[in-house]
Amino acid sequence: MNPRIAEFIRGLGQETIRRIAALSDQEPEGILGASDNLDPSRAEGTELDYYHGVVTGAAAPEDLDTLAVPAGTWAVFENSGPFPQALQYLWRDVFTQWFPSNPYQSRPGPEILRTRLSQDGARADAELWIPVERTAV
User: Fold this and answer.
1) By its UniProt entry, which Pfam families does this protein fall under (predicted)?
2) Span 114-125, mean pLDDT?
């Protein structure tokens, strides 16, 4: 996991996270991480915008930021295993195996990650949503 993102999440506080979670009313459910404005190279250390939030049709409280996500086609991937390796392998496999062997490419838009940790934090179930568009054949 990106150490700056982990630090950001720790700084939110449990009350803020509870307030955000209560707004979740659409799929994918629950607290999500959304990375937007990614550098196309995806090189380590490049900047991005990170949101720790939910998908909702409700109006957000004024003290919270929002990220509009336009409709489109999404590829959804799942993985389970030791944390954080399961997340790292998921991202790696999507971009080094799935994209090269399928007629899709990523399109602009946020990449959304839903992670559910085991009670001891040792394992994770992850679901990664990537905005995609079909490539010309």
Assistant:
1) GyrI-like
2) 95
